[in-house]
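Minutes, structural biology subgroup

Action item carried over from last meeting: produce the structure token record for Alpha-catulin (Zapornia atra). EB confirmed the sequence was re-checked against the source entry. Recorded below for completeness.
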Amino acid sequence: SSGLGADAGLEIRTRSVEQTLVPLVSQITTLINHKDKPKRSDKTLQAIQRVGQAVNLAVGRFVTVGEAIANENHELKEEMSIACIEARRAGETIAQLTDVASLDHPESDSHITIFTDKTGVVKAARLLLSSVTKVLVLADRIVIKQIITSRNKVLATMEQLEKVSSFQEFVQIFSQFGNEMVEFAHLTGDRQNDLKDEKKKARMAASRAVLEKCTMMLLTASKTCLRHPDCESARINKDGVFHRMRLALEQVIEIVTDSRPNGESEMAPISIYSGIKEFKNKVEGLRENLYFLSKENLSTMLEVILEHTEDFTDSAYTSHEHREHILELSKQAKMELEQLVSVWMQAQNQKTKDLMEDLEVAILKTCQCMNELKREVHSAATSLAADLLKYHTDHMVLKALKITGVEGNLEAVAEYTCKLSEQKEQLVEMCRLLRHVSGTEPLEITCIHAEDTFQVTGPQIISAAETLALHPSSKIAKENLEVFCEAWESQLSDMSMLLREINDVFEGRRGEKRVYLSLPRPGKHNANLKALKPVKLDTEEQAKIAKLGLELHLLTSSVDSETEKWEDQENEIVQHGQGMSSMAYSMYLFTRGEGLLKTTQDLFHQAEIFATEGTKLASALHAFSHQVHDDDKPLLLLEAEKLISMCKQLQITAKASVQGKSATFSKVDACILKTRNVMTLLGQLLPLCCKLLRKARGNCCLKPAPPWREGRVWTGTNAHSAERRAEELGIKSLENHVTNMTFLESK
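Output recorded by EB:
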């Protein structure tokens, strides 16, 4: 009411800017809203002075940061410097006007203060808010610039990747590409979390999910193309991935910069739900105002809704019963609106009690009819989705494509690609119908993302399957088909959760927000995993467990350096050791609130898998004991028994049921502690086994890290370096795949 407000031209789009301003606005409002003639007690005067000084000090610190940013970014230096000077000046003015502690002394009466110049305080406050907002928005522009620069780097490296003709060159450039994607992931992840607009947030999440999936596809599709340079289907497959990544990168920049190419305005697709909601609001608004819209306006709105219902009535997948009901309700809606318009027009001419009662009845009947129509289309869309998801849950077509591809059976592959195309059409139609009944804009965007994923991934699976059928002995063509099939399966799994959320919204249960964007979810295939409420560690808990996490980190480095020393990287002991080290590193990242283990449930599941891997290692040690000298066997078996005991203890802890925040944290602490103990033992076991193997063979089993060799997969220290650098975009196995790349396939 005092006219406070930031510059009207400065739109605040992020939570961080908004939250920085909130306490400042609160303090200034306290000053502005003081009584003009309060009881001037020492306590009141001191409080006013304290607030004024606090504002000035806070602004001083804030401006110092702003000036430092200005010095580092020359293109914004002038604007930023002016805003900083204005903010500093306004802060000092407020401090002077609130210097009222000595007002009870007569000699101070001539001093201009908040009591004698309230207009001056309002003016200074407005200038302060405007200049501080300006500094924040300018700083935000720098973040946007960083994202654009990062995107440009990714695009430039993608162009290089597209043109490479040798494996060596590809490996080198892809490693750089991985680092650039991780940087882009961090920047866009922070931005996504900071956005205020839920719709933009959902679009950003969808684009980042596409980039996460496509990074792996780009790797295997490019490898396949390099291995089979004359294969047309391999080239089509690769080109599709690059095209989709470019579109996703473009969409991220559109969201970040709030712009569209060629100045187009964003056309949001209209859903039946949003149409009915708006129509009902207008109809119910007639109770308050009979003249605020025309009958033509209302008729047009209903026509648009009924046009959209044709998506259901024209669909081959809508049941006969649902189709009939939707057509009946559409006809009824037209009749109800005609009746409403008739009474409404009469009421405009003569506002009698009877007419107003008739209008109320017409409003209620129209809204009731629209509610029934909404319920019917919801039922049609969700029952179709439930049936399709249940029917396709066995992934029979994908399994058949993999088998017939490896057999080189081109005729059978062609038959199953037709079936996959049919399945794709069904799922795309399902997504379109679900979008109409999704209930919220973010869920609508998730439906559009799902539709796009099925639309694009279907043909990509087909081109990957054709490539494998043409080259049935190619390991990389087989791996490539696997990656595309996994993306399809993952999207189907996400659709089940999306369907649940859509039903929750319809029934008025919002519940926990879920993510349906094909991000890796450790343990999603574990049938015994109960759907518990996901929990993350808070900052205080992370601080408590930090030391333990750091110890785990150091142990993974130690184990990595031990596994790297082995000549035979395919030795079972080495492979189990590397797997355990990789999992332990994921658990370390969790203690920092980073990495791919997002919730405590993810951590517990990872601990179970880690313990299972440890038990497998113990079995490998028992087998290895037959190769060593009799004198050394007891020591090795003793260590193996220790390992089995520790892994059993970890399994019991990870599976134990707990309730409540404190108990959950204690379980996290125990899991990390027991994992650390297993890793400590592993760090002792690996050099012992290497020493015993050397002794048994009478030669050294150690040698420097080997070069790339034909027909050989190298899995060295970097086996989980991707996870060390990729927290945000889910590029879990990016570097893993680079280091595991077969340089020259033997077949």
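Discussion: The two ends are 78 Å apart (CA to CA).
Next step: EB to file the record with the rest of the batch.
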